[in-house]
Amino acid sequence: MIVPVPGDEERALAEAVATFARDLGPRVAAAEEEGTIPREVIAEVGRLGVLGMTVPEKDGGLGASSVAFALVLEELAAVWPSLAVGVSVNSGITEGTLVRLGTAEQKRRWLPPLMDGSGLGAFALTEPGSGSDAAALRTTARRDGGGWILGGRKMFVTNLRYAPVVIVLARSGEADPERPHAGISAFLVPTDAAGVVIGRAERKMGLHASDTSSLTLEDVHVDAGALLGPEGRGFGAVAMAGLDGGRIGIAAQAVGIARGALERAERYVRQRRQFGRTLASFQALRHMIARARTETDAARLLALRAAWLKDQGRPFTKEASEAKLYASEMAQRATHTAVQLLGGYGYMRESEVERFARDARATTIYEGTSEVQRLVIARALRAA
Ligand SMILES: Cc1cc2nc3c(=O)[nH]c(=O)nc-3n(C[C@H](O)[C@H](O)[C@H](O)COP(=O)(O)OP(=O)(O)OC[C@H]3O[C@@H](n4cnc5c(N)ncnc54)[C@H](O)[C@@H]3O)c2cc1C
Q: What are the residue ranges of CATH 2.40.110.10 in the chain?
């Protein structure tokens, strides 16, 4: 079986980002309180090359591997999960789809602002009436002269407030109850187009600095060049294929969240004393850490295996779902272990571990819930 061992270049990229993330550390609490990722932080991530790291060199990026990207997302999430998910959605599903399916003109227009730190890209699939059953979407795209008119409403769009462009999935053909996935197309919609209305930022349980907003499309006119990928086949070619890659990013984010919480808890148990000894000397607590660290390592290997398969151009749908399922569920256990290790202090806002526990909660939900990942894995096993 495959053992994806990161190479020197991949480790070097991850180390550079780890240093950057450590320096960001003191700014995180205030930004989370404020509920935004400061624009200058997005600009710094852009300058570092992280926002274009998986874009091929010929398109202006670093051309780094998916393995390197997974390691980088882990480092960001170990300090700031909100930033990690913003980068994952920008570089994974949004740029990834543009690189895979975009025309030369679409890449020329949209890749630079998604790489240079002037904004973060967004991807709008979910609607008020369709989440897990994404093919039931009702946003419409109808032809208008040489272009298209889009109408409908999208929910929970990550990065929308920072996005120069959002990929919107819409029904461009007749709805056919027998073939709900057919007739769906993807469009590159500039967020400054007339008729684009960005709703208020959702108030969430965690990931407070990550923007999650609704998108209303009021007869938005886009030109013919906005169609991304094959007309009528956007559900498979854009949405599902994009999510396969995105799920590796969320798995890596979950690994980073778990590691970030555990590192803080380990520091705490080494210095906190009860009954005349450090907490770290109690075997019950050492075993809690041993279990959580083992599960974190297992989740990282699953994420790297999926990333490695993607880099090899081999199928990775099942492996990405396995990684996302296991890593996100593991992050719930690990972050709650970290809270427990800090006792009452772990429950307090001042301890960072409570933030990691709240942030982890979203990872079993977005880019497909755990229940949906099990459906995907079971389907792949049946096909084998
Ligand atoms: C912080 C955050 C950011 C997000 N960002 C984005 C984004 O950028 N773009 C975007 O398009 N969406 C985004 N989403 C939406 C997210 O992908 C959906 O919330 C998710 O897919 C679930 O859809 P839903 O909320 O409608 O829940 P539902 O689909 O209504 O599911 C409710 C429950 O029923 C379960 N369920 C549903 N169907 C089945 C089934 N067949 N079998 C078993 N169980 C089932 C689900 O697992 C879940 O537990 C985001 C969500 C959050 C929380």
A: 123-235
Handedness of CA 235, 236, 237, 239 (dihedral sign): positive
The residues annotated as belonging to the active site are 367
Dihedral sign of CA atoms 338, 343, 345, 348 in order? positive
Whole-number Å distance, alpha carbon 239 to ligand 1 midpoint, is 14
For residue 161, the CA-to-ligand 1 centroid distance in Å is: 20
Please tell me the distance from the alpha carbon of residue 14 to that of residue 18, in angstroms, as a whole number.
Answer: 6
Q: Among the atoms of ligand 1, which is closest to the Cα of residue 130?
A: 26
Bridge partner residues of 143 (DSSP): 148
Residue range(s) occupied by CATH 1.20.140.10 in the chain:
237-383
pLDDT per position as a tens digit, 57-112? 999 999 999 999 999 999 999 999 999 999 999 999 999 999 999 999 999 999 99
Assigned CATH topology for domain 8-120: Butyryl-Coa Dehydrogenase, subunit A; domain 1 (1.10.540)
pLDDT in tens, 229-244: 999 999 999 999 999 9
Ligand 1 atom closest to Cα of residue 93: 8
How far is 197 from 364, CA to CA, in rounded Å?
28
Q: Is residue 158 classed as helix, strand or coil in its secondary structure? A: strand
CATH code of domain 123-235: 2.40.110.10
Residue 2 has pLDDT above 70, yes or no: no
Query: Which has more confidence, 309 or 177?
Result: 309
pTM of the model: 0.96
Q: Which residues line ligand 1 (CB under 6 A)?
A: 89, 123-126, 131-132, 156-158, 204, 207, 212, 362, 365-369, 371-372
- Taking residues 156-179, report their average pLDDT: 93
Q: Which CATH class is domain 237-383?
A: mainly alpha
Measured from the CA of 122, which atom of ligand 1 is nearest?
A: 8
